[in-house]
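Translate structure to sequence.
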């Protein structure tokens, strides 16, 4: 009790000065002990009134008190007779104590008023009485989820919030009660994402928490992450109202408008006041707008195609302004197919509109050139060209040859484009494109040249050419062609196993195609984004892109085959073999080829049983693929698919096919498809050895897969292949032990705990240190072995990778106190203290000097590299974590695994990456790709890095490990011993378990 509490009796007796009385009233409303004392005093006084007083007089005193203490304009509640209502029996008033009665009644009303005011404050916390809501999403906290119309803030980024200020007393009360979700909701409804996130992350996992975290991800521009969270919520609680609504918002934000409409339909069926009606309006609008766009685009394409067959067809001039891409694409064919000079000149108004969109007179000049041709010779060729475009020409190849000899170069160029024969006649195609002096055609030629360079193995030339073409692509009239170049560049990056860069191009192209309203391009980018998401094991996003694609073109047989075979593969990634088989059957309904994804899926499903129909289907699929003249890397993948399928019923033949696939792949070291095949086949062989109980063979196969020698003792091999896992080891005495499991029910997360059974962990207990041979995606996960063991991941170097000289003969590079770009809003890290004993070989890069270029250059001759900086993991920017450094003059600030991998570190350095999540990477199934692996491949001997976020104090931990290594301790023992020391001093420092060693 505070000192004010001593004044309660004076207040009751009316003996306080007016100012003190007013202060005490405010204190009374917030002090539980005083309120309790007031209640006891009132009970005693009222007991006396009941014994001695007059109830009507007392009621009048109470009404007087109400009028005194109620807020201005507030009327006291009355019963039917007009008397202030009360749940108590009538009071008898003591005539001798009117002042005391007034004070006591006033005090009771004071408490009641403040209680009522408390309810008002509670409503104000979550803006429950506001006329509109400030965020579009639904918060999974009951008192914050009332429906009100959505009124988005009109202020720009960085503008001060216009939301009512949070009542701090109410927040304090919520925190006292432990209602952290209520606090998070209060911040969330005001759009304060940072504060809301802080409180949500203090909550235990739950469907409601994940719903609200998804809101933050959506508002921060991470819709794919938001979608994954919401799908997880709906798996736990399918009727979660807020998650259903928010999922619809996320799908709409991703541009998946028909799926969003379906999601809003689900909200409509719930019949929730306000929300269901708003959902109905939104669903109707999304569906109508999307379908109307599709109809308009198809109408524009049909209108310009009509020009080839109907001389009276109208010129689609308005369509050319709205859809310049598809109209221009078909315009070229209309000009080529013009049957006469007049027929060509009739197209001049359309040429002028299209030129007006882009600028210049390229298309007008083209029409005039064609109109000047000799139509006595040209007209028959033009007529056959129209048949070629419509697919009505029986023998295209002889016609192409006739066009080549005809001298009608634009017809020949169009024929090569239409028949996709440019790659076979590349010299002719590039010459004709150059002579056309048309940027649209020139960009098409650049795309074909890049394809030829990629097929020749010069992918770096193809990349440079395509990037230059995208950079030079300017103007609305060329936007369609620019988007197709981005699609081609995205394809190249996927082929090179660079999905982050593929996503950058595909997402940009997707946004551009939506802005252009290019319906068919949108379809292409939906499938591209699905492919990238599947590659990165982002199953939720991949499934959404595919289903939107199917919803837009449900009647196209080829589309249904494509979507269902890929949905089948996604179901397999989620360990749902039954759903995978169901989707695969839907994919076969049209009788179209299943392609490579279908062949691979059939080979995996054979683990759960395959019949003669499956065998026939696989044989047909492989035959179709082999007839299509696939690349050598794809041929190796086909051998792998066949071998894995056959292995389940003919072990000897299956093993032979898998070994053959490895031989094919190892001859193609730079081919991504070959690398996938090699690792996949080794993984299957290792699991087969484990299934047969041959731990020694399993261990040898894992060593071969990683290209490392297998030690004779204290070595552990671990691999996971979907539902299967295999563990093999040699203990301190060289004894062999193994474990095989085929009952995994879910994909690996970010931890490997539980993969190695306790009995096998115990067998390594006498080892001074343990070498771990882990195939992807296990490689680089934390928690594989207990912290009392000294262990490290072994990293093999591909043939031709850098191999440094002996360690210890170079500089000691320290990157410290980096001046990160201000726009990132990162807190400044504390600078390291200078070394106590001095270090003559130490070189520091700090502040604005610590740019990526300077750091990369300084690492080449360093024997120790320490980087103390912020780390980041963004799948949109890189497939491995990034180190945030000072910006270059052109703004680049990130040190990436790709940049490190390209180096040759001459001094085999010890590398300490004291950055958050430096060892985190996209979990590819066929290779390990992370910053630590990149350093090893560049020539480093040892890398220490974290898989988790780390505090500022982590720098001291890394330095302490380094000092132990300098003193001669093996790196694995140095890490284990310093971890023990650190935990003794800091028992709650769980992050030290996320520091891993790579050698």
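Result:
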């Amino acid at each position: 009790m505070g000192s004010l509490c001593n004044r309660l009796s004076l207040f009751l007796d009316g003996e306080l000065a007016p100012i003190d009385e007013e202060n005490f009233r405010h204190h009374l409303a917030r002090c539980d002990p005083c309120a309790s004392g007031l209640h006891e005093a009132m009970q005693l006084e009222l007991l006396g009134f009941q014994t001695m007083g007059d109830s009507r007089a007392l009621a009048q005193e109470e009404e007087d008190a109400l009028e005194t203490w109620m807020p201005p304009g507030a009327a006291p509640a009355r019963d039917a007779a007009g008397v202030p209502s009360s749940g108590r029996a009538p009071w008898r008033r003591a005539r001798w104590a009117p002042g005391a009665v007034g004070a006591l009644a006033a005090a009771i009303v004071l408490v009641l008023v403040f209680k009522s005011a408390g309810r008002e404050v509670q409503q104000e916390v979550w803006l429950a009485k506001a006329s509109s809501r400030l965020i579009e999403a639904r918060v999974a906290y009951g008192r914050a989820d009332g429906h009100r119309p959505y009124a988005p803030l009109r202020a720009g980024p960085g503008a001060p919030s216009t939301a009512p200020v949070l009542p701090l007393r109410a927040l304090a009360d919520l925190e006292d009660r432990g209602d952290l979700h209520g606090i998070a909701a209060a911040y969330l409804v005001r759009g304060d994402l940072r504060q809301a996130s802080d409180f949500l992350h203090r909550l235990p996992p739950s469907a409601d928490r994940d719903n609200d975290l998804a809101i933050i991800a959506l508002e921060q521009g991470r819709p794919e992450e938001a979608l994954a969270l919401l799908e997880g919520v709906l798996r736990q609680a399918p009727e979660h109202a807020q998650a259903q609504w928010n999922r619809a918002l996320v799908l709409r934000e991703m541009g998946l408008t028909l799926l969003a409409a379906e999601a809003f339909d689900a909200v409509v069926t719930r019949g929730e006041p306000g929300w269901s009606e708003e959902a109905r309006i939104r669903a109707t609008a999304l569906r109508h707008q999307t379908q109307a766009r599709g109809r308009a685009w198809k109408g524009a394409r049909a209108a310009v195609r009509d020009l080839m067959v109907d001389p009276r067809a109208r010129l689609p001039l308005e369509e050319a302004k709205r859809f310049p891409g598809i109209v221009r694409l078909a315009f070229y064919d209309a000009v080529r197919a013009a049957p006469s000079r007049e027929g060509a000149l009739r197209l001049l108004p359309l040429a002028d509109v299209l030129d007006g969109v882009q600028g210049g007179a390229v298309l007008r000049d083209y029409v005039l050139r064609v109109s000047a041709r000799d139509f006595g010779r040209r007209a028959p060729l033009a007529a056959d060209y129209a048949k070629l475009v419509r697919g009505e020409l029986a023998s295209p190849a002889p016609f192409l040859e006739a066009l080549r000899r005809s001298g009608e170069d634009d017809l020949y160029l169009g024929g090569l484009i239409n028949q996709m024969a440019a790659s076979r006649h590349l010299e002719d195609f590039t010459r004709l494109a150059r002579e056309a002096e048309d940027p649209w055609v020139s960009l098409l030629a650049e795309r074909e040249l890049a394809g030829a360079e990629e097929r020749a193995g010069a992918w770096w030339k193809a990349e440079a050419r395509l990037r230059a073409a995208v950079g030079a692509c300017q103007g609305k009239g060329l936007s369609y062609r620019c988007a197709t170049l981005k699609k081609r560049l995205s394809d190249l990056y996927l082929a090179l196993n660079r999905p982050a860069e593929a996503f950058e191009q595909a997402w940009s192209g997707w946004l551009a195609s939506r802005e252009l309203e290019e319906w068919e391009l949108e379809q292409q980018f939906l499938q591209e984004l699905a492919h990238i998401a599947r590659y990165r094991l982002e199953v939720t996003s991949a499934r959404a892109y595919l289903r939107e694609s199917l919803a837009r073109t449900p009647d196209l047989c080829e589309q249904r085959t494509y979507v269902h075979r890929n949905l089948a593969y996604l179901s397999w990634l989620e360990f749902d073999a039954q759903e995978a088989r169901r989707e695969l059957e839907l994919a076969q309904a049209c009788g179209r080829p299943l392609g490579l994804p279908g062949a691979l899926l059939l080979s995996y499903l054979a683990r759960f049983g395959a019949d003669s129909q499956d065998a026939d289907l696989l044989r047909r699929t492989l035959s179709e693929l082999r007839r299509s003249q696939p690349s050598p890397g794809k041929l190796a993948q086909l051998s792998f698919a066949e071998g894995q399928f056959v292995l389940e019923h003919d072990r000897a033949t299956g093993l032979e096919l898998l070994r053959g696939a490895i031989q094919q792949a190892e001859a193609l070291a730079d081919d991504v498809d070959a690398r996938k095949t090699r690792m996949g086949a080794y993984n299957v062989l290792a699991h087969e050895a484990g299934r047969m109980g041959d731990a020694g063979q399993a261990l040898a196969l894992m060593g071969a897969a990683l290209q490392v020698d297998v030690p004779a003792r204290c070595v552990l091999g671990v691999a996971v292949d979907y539902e299967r896992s295999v563990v093999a080891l040699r203990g301190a005495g060289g004894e062999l032990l193994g474990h095989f499991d085929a009952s995994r029910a879910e994909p690996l997360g970010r931890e490997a705990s539980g993969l190695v059974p306790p009995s096998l962990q115990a067998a390594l207990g006498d080892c001074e240190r343990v070498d771990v041979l882990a195939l992807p995606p296990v490689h680089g996960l934390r928690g594989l072995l207990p912290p009392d063991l000294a262990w490290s991941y072994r990293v093999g170097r591909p043939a031709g990778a850098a191999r440094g000289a002996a360690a210890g003969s170079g500089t000691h590079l320290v990157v410290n106190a980096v001046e990160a770009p201000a726009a990132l809003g990162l807190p400044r890290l504390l600078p390291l203290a200078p070394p106590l004993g001095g270090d003559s070989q130490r070189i520091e890069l700090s502040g604005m000097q610590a740019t990526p270029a300077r750091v990369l250059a300084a690492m080449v001759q360093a024997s120790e590299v320490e980087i103390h900086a912020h780390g980041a993991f963004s799948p949109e920017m890189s497939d491995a974590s990034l180190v945030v450094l000072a910006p270059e003059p052109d703004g680049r600030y990130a040190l990436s695994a790709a940049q490190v991998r390209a180096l040759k570190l001459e001094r085999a350095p010890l590398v300490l990456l004291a950055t958050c999540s430096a060892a985190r990477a996209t979990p590819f199934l066929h290779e390990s790709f992370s910053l630590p692996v990149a350093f090893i491949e560049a020539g480093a001997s040892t890398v220490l890095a974290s898989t988790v976020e780390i505090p500022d104090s982590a720098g001291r931990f890394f330095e302490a490990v380094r000092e132990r290594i300098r003193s001669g301790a093996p790196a694995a023992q140095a890490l284990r011993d310093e971890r023990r020391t650190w935990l003794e001093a800091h028992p709650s420092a769980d992050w030290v378990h996320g520091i891993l060693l790579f050698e």
